[in-house]
Amino acid sequence: MRSLRFPATQGEPLSFANAGMTKQRVAILISGRGSNMAALIAAAGHPQFPAEIALVVSNRPTAAGLAVAGAASVKTAVVDHVPYGQDREAFERALQAELEAHRIELVCLAGFLRLLTPAFLGRWPDRLINIHPALLPAFKGLKTHERALAAGVKIHGASVHFVVPEMDSGPIIAQGAVAVHDDDSVETLARRVLAIEHRLYPATLALVAAGRVTIVDGRCRIDGAKPPELSLIVPES
Ligand code: GRF
User: Fold this and answer.
1) Which of 68, 74, 107, 179 is the 20 to 30 Å CA partner of 34?
2) What's the domain range around 38?
3) Handedness of CA 12, 46, 20, 206 (dihedral sign)
4) pLDDT tens-digit profile of 58-101?
5) Annotated catalytic, 198?
6) How far, in Å, from the CA of 110 to the mean position of ligand 1?
C-alpha cells in the first residue's frame, strides 16, 4: 500500500494510501456553483488520486459549475428535471442513461438539489455519496448554518455519507469540524464550513475509490486508517 499526499484546497495537505491503481470513474452531480465539484476535480488531477472525474452532470442548465468543469476539461452533461415535471423516475432514467454511457462507477452529489428515489439509489448501492454541511445526524435538511447558530452549538462542520432513501441519513464516512465563534454570522460560519468541505470531500472520495471503506452494522470503517489519516478533520481554529 502506497502513501499518497496531495495538496488540499485549503489548509494542511491530507495524506492517503492508495490501495489500487485502477482509477474509479466518478460522476459529480451538481445543481449550482460547484465549489465542492471544483475541489474534487482539483484533487483528482493528482496522478495518484484513485479516482478520475469522468463526468459532471447538472439538473440545471444554468448551473455555474458547468462552466467551471468545462474549463477544467471535464465532460459535462445536463439532464434538466423540468421537462419531466413530477415524473421523477423518467428523470432518473435519463440520468442513469447518462451515467451508464460514461461507464460511471461512483457518484458524488455536490450541491445536487433533487431527492433521488429508492429505485435509483438501489442501482448505486454503496457507490453514491453526498456532502452535507453539518455534523450529522445533527441538522439534516436545509439552512444548517442558521440552525446551528440558533441552537448555540460550539462545534459545527460537514459530513460525507453514503446516500440512502431517507434524507441525510446514510452511513457517515468522514466528518470535518469547525469551531463556532461567538461573533459568527451565517455567512462567516458558512465560509468556515465550506473551507473544510473542500478538504473533506476529496479526502473521503479517495478513501471510497480506493476501496477502503466498509460498512459494518451501518457504521463505516476505514481499512488500515492510522493517524493522521483519519476520517475526522479538525483544523486549528
Ligand atoms: C455545500 O455546502 C454542500 O455541503 C451542500 O450544498 C453546498 C454546495 O455548494 N450539499 P457547492 O455547489 O459545492 O459550492
Assistant:
1) 179
2) 2-233
3) positive
4) 999 999 999 999 999 999 999 999 999 999 999 999 999 999 99
5) no
6) 6
Question: Three cell numbers at 175?
Answer: 466528518
The Å distance, Cα 165 to ligand 1 centre, comes to 19
Tens of pLDDT, residue by residue over 137-192, are 999 999 999 999 999 999 999 999 999 999 999 999 999 999 999 999 999 999 99
Q: What 3-state DSSP class applies to 70?
A: helix
The SS3 of residue 75 is: coil
Ligand 1 pocket at CB < 6 A: 30, 32-37, 110-111, 131-133, 158, 194, 197
Mean pLDDT, the chain, rounded, equals 91
Q: Are 201 and 209 in contact (CB under 8 A)?
A: no
Given the residues 81, 102, 132, 198, select the one marked as catalytic: 132
Would the pLDDT of 18 be above 70?
A: no
Count of the separate structural domains present in the chain: 1
How many angstroms does the Cα of residue 147 sit away from the middle of ligand 1? 16
User: Any idea what the CATH number is for the domain that residue 93 is in?
Assistant: 3.40.50.170
pLDDT of residue 1: 27
Q: Which atom of ligand 1 is nearest to the CA of 109?
A: 10
Q: Answer yes or no: pTM beyond 0.70.
A: yes
**Alpha-carbon distances of 14 from 120, 230, 232, rounded to whole Å:** 33, 10, 11
